[in-house]
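Support request from a user on the community tier.

User writes: "When I paste my structure tokens into the form, the page sometimes reloads and wipes my input. The last time it worked, I copied everything first. Here is what I submitted, just in case something in the input itself triggers the reload:"
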């Protein structure tokens, strides 16, 4: 697989987390300035908690790596499309899930008492959603290639 793919996996794993998304929600929804948003997002930061959530957050990416390396999908156009689609889906689900968990803190919406469970369940759900996105991309690109070969 191209080095860009590994770079995007690494950046997504590091940057799309509950702290970064909290900062973005504070700035974009809560109308904090950049510095105050950073202070609000990092107010209750604890390295142990962050690493605990990172273990769950890494799960879909750690599944994607051997699929990309061992499967041989990276040798075909439809395989590359599937791998990129799966990666975008996983990163997008992480971002959306953490945003959805944190947005009620800055709106009149009621914050659920179980919202913190999203830290565990968002990565778990992103595994099957990423697989589904990859499969869909594979099938659509394969069908498109077959149609244009005629």
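"...and here is what came back when it finally went through:"
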């Amino acid at each position: 697989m191209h080095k860009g793919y590994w770079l995007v996996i690494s950046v997504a794993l590091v940057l799309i987390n509950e702290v970064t998304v909290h900062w973005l929600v504070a700035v974009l929804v809560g109308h904090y300035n950049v510095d105050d948003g950073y202070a609000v997002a990092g107010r209750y930061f604890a390295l142990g908690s962050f690493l605990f959530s990172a273990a769950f957050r890494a799960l879909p990416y750690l599944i994607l790596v051997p699929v990309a390396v061992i499967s041989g999908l990276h040798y075909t156009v439809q395989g590359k499309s599937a791998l990129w689609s799966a990666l975008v889906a996983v990163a997008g689900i992480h971002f959306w899930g953490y945003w959805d968990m944190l947005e009620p803190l800055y709106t009149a919406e009621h914050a659920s008492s179980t919202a913190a469970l999203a830290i565990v369940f968002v990565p778990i759900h992103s595994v099957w959603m990423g697989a589904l996105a990859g499969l869909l991309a594979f099938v659509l690109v394969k069908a498109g290639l077959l149609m244009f070969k005629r």
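Agent notes: The reload is a front-end session timeout and is unrelated to the input. Residues 118-149 form the longest helix (32 residues). The mean pLDDT is 92. Escalated to web team.
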